[in-house]
Amino acid sequence: MTTPPEPSALTTPFDQGLLLGILIGEGHFGGDGKQPHITLRMHTRHRKLFEAMLRICPGSRLYGPYDHGGRQYYQWMARGKVLREQLIPLLDALPMAKLDDHVFERYLDMKTRYGLMNITPLETQTEKTQDTA
């Protein structure tokens, strides 16, 4: 297994907070039975937010716009290499467990079901700043 990449310069503390907040509020942690994925489905009016998600998590994908039952939405998805090597290590380094027990349990359930428990968390920009202070 290769060493996970360091967070990019674009993964600022603001980006990390935005990512964590939007996934706690709107994210889905699951899979298709064969591979895990994290998804975010929201109205098309949130296009700029989805563009930020693509920037924060390079390699993730945006699908849509879809129009089902009168609802127009996009679906953002992280799976495969980007999920295992970039997003999971970053989320593991952020304080999800301190912010929302229910979402953290869903996240851990996904990691357990798909064998993702032994991934090493990344050192976040915030941790680096605190270590040097």
Structure description:
The protein has 133 residues and is an alpha+beta fold. It has helices at 13-26, 47-56, 80-93, 96-99, 101-113, 125-132, and strands spanning 27-31, 36-43, 61-68, 71-79. A 4-stranded antiparallel beta sheet has the order 1-2-4-3. A hairpin with a 4-residue loop joins strand 1 (27-31) and strand 2. The longest helix is centred in the N-terminal third of the chain and has 14 residues, at 13-26. It is globular and about 40 Å long.
Secondary structure elements and pairings:
Blueprint: H1 13-26, E1 27-31, E2 36-43, H2 47-56, E3 61-68, E4 71-79, H3 80-93, H4 96-99, H5 101-113, H6 125-132
Antiparallel strand pairs: 1-2, 2-4, 3-4
The gyration radius over C-alpha positions equals 15 Å
The total strand number stands at 4
> What separation lies between the terminal Cα atoms?
33 Å
Helix content: 40-55%
% residues in beta strands = 15-25%
Widest sheet, order of strands: 1-2-4-3
Q: Spans of 5+ residues with little confidence (pLDDT < 50)?
A: 1-10
What characteristic shape results from the CA principal axes? globular
Which structural class do the helices and strands define?
alpha+beta
Question: Total helix count?
Answer: 6
- Secondary-structure element pattern, one letter each: HEEHEEHHHH
Major pleated sheet:
4 strands, antiparallel
Mean pLDDT across all amino acids? 88
